[in-house]
Amino acid sequence: MFEIQFASLGEFFSMGNYAFNVWSVYALFALFFVINIYFPLVRRKQILKEQKRRLLLNAEAEESRTGSS
Amino acid sequence: MWTWFHQLGSPKWFYELTGRWLPWLVAAMSLLLLVGIVWALLFVPPDYQQGNTIRIMYIHVPFASISLAFFPLMAIAGTVTLVWKIKLADMIAKTAAPLGAWFTALALASGSIWGSDIWGTWWIWDGRLTSMLLQLFLLIGVISLRSALEDTDAAAKACAVLSIVGCINVFVIKYSVDWWNTLHQPASPITTSGEGPNGPEIWVPLVIMIFAIYLFFAVALILSTRNEILQRERRAQWVQDLVRTA
After folding, report:
1. Count of domains in chain B?
2. With a threshold of 0.90, does the pTM exceed it?
3. DSSP letter, residue B39
4. Host domain of residue B223
5. Is the pLDDT of residue B195 over 60?
């Protein structure tokens, strides 16, 4: 059951003449994986930054309003 | 029971709970993915007819089977939205649609690349392939419907109804291989003894990959839903506190 099916690294990469099929599917999977984990994390940073800015702006506006009255 | 139900529907509760779960889910996902991919690429014996393209199965089958879960998930979330008006359900439904489109697209693309050599064609209007393509279009339809409606509540209701109706297609996909006998094969029987064609050396890594991709689905869905919560609940005190300390 646990026997490596390839005799050499070259054989592994060539996948018995199916290199294109096998590797492109695994590459698509890797791309897909990165997109769906990485993008939500980037988006989260953006959201937090945006909302922090808005809170600060609101607090400033509040301060200047109460300060002038 | 009802307090539990409403607690479950509270975005804050969901946010805190998933915050505690995420590290464990990510750890389990990484471990299973590593084991599954190494096993699929190195240890699975080449198929006697398909050679090394059998390794494509370990990506194709998990994605294809899990992509069938999206419409039922969105329909359940949609029903909860329509009946109990629980906001969290709609947030999950909203983030599930694009993720489902990705899953369906990857199932179609990997199948197409697999078929390009083994079937000798990239595409055929076979029952399974056509109904999967329809699911992709339906998901794009749900996404477009939501972005077309500015009112959040109206969008939630419209998408809920479309998701419930769209569930019909899941049955068509599931049974297409039995109803129309063309190129796509029906599900293979598995055997536990060493005698059958599909012994444990074939299906054990497949089961590992299915669990790994399920965990990936959970992690990706949770990450996007948490973003959605932060945006929609931005006026809530707990989100503002969280934003200040971030």
Report:
1. 1
2. no
3. I
4. 29-245
5. no
